Amino acid sequence: MSQQRIRRSILKGAAASLFIPAFGHAQDPQAPIRIAMVEAMSGAFANTGESVLRNLVWAVERVNQRGGVRLPQGPRKLQLDRYDSKGQTDEALSALRAAIDDGARIIVQGNSSAVAAALIDAIDKHNARDPQRRVIFLNYSAVDPILTNERCSFWHFRFDAHADMRMAALMQVLSGDRDVHSVYLFGQDYSFGQAVLREARRQLGAQRPDVRIVGDELHPLGRVKDFAPYAAKIKASGAQAVITGNWGNDLTLLVKAARDAGYDGKFYTFYGNALGAPAAIGEAGIGRVIAVADWLPNLPTRESEAFYRSFRERFPRPQDDYVHMRMQLVIEALAQALEKAGSTDAVAVARQLESVRVAFASQQGHMRAADHQFQQPLVVGVMERQGTPGVKFDVEGSGYGFRVIRTLSPAEAEMPTSCKMIRPG
């Protein structure tokens, strides 16, 4: 086996001999259904990969604890294998080939729209070339809008709100924030980061034409270790707010540098609600860091609270508590589609995923068949001290959590698509 292939099964008791060669016999009808997570488990964004792994492990465990997926031939468990992409596109493509050779027919990935775009292209070509081994791609967080617009694919399903939808939710808050008259646009220099800033400019022009853009800057993805020069420019610009789609260490290091520089403006973020960001900015973030998400731990429902508490029981370390509701919905949707299809055939399962509707822990959503963009509620939260009204739970033991200040229904969050879906004959 290649040294580049890093695979760890999280299905307890699964035999190491489950390797299925590319030209082997038909799969055992009782064998686990393999799900391959292609994600950065090392490198600059390893913390994001580990966060994803915890969430998917928990979701798979829940399906298996209730007996697995019920198929006509009998129940089958799910098996999650992880493949380290190291955050690099070429490594992700190598991992995809390894996963297919190992017998995986469900691919999950999300932490990088550039990687997701490459996987979509590779899967389209593979499925056309090798119909006996077709695979489906479930995307939990690659949110470049192009992936369900111009580059939409029958084999790709996105379960996160895309960047334009997230930006629209943030703008519902920013449009009413009359203390903000100038903003600095800041992002990672790749397809997603560029899309965020492009949409920020468009929506600001439509909703807050009075707001001046005093900075508009992109930086290398995952390569900047010292954001102090950027923070100094942001502070010197006089911007009253920063709009950023930064994630992982690129966000944490940015907010740390801004804190150290004495910047006291607001941060309108896509991912400011975890992975070290609240602890990094500390007291300076109270009332100033705004984040959009599909779900937040302080959503005020009993079902949501029970969901969060059960995750904390499974993963008790405070630093492990970045919970993704949508990743639970990914696995629930997959299990439902498999059962309705009555088989693991990729075409049959994909057709069921096109119309899937899932409800879990008070969260509900459905897949839009036109472009395979999942439609679900969105929430916007503001950072506050734990214990203040609306903040029962903090983030990663930081003492700070997010109070929900705006909720959008699926209909309010929905946006049009330009997808021209090509489906198999």
From TrEMBL:
Keyword match Transmembrane: no
This protein's record includes keyword Zinc: no
Keywords: Signal
SUPFAM superfamilies reported in the protein's UniProt record: Periplasmic binding protein-like I
Protein name as annotated: Branched-chain amino acid ABC transporter substrate-binding protein
Leader sequence segment: 1-26
Protein's organism: Ramlibacter aurantiacus
Leucine-binding protein domain span: 32-385
Upper classification of the organism: Bacteria, Pseudomonadati, Pseudomonadota, Betaproteobacteria, Burkholderiales
PANTHER family: LEUCINE-SPECIFIC-BINDING PROTEIN (PTHR30483), PERIPLASMIC BINDING PROTEIN OF ABC TRANSPORTER FOR NATURAL AMINO ACIDS (PTHR30483:SF6)
Family annotation (Pfam families): Peripla_BP_6 (PF13458)
Record-stated family: Belongs to the leucine-binding protein family.
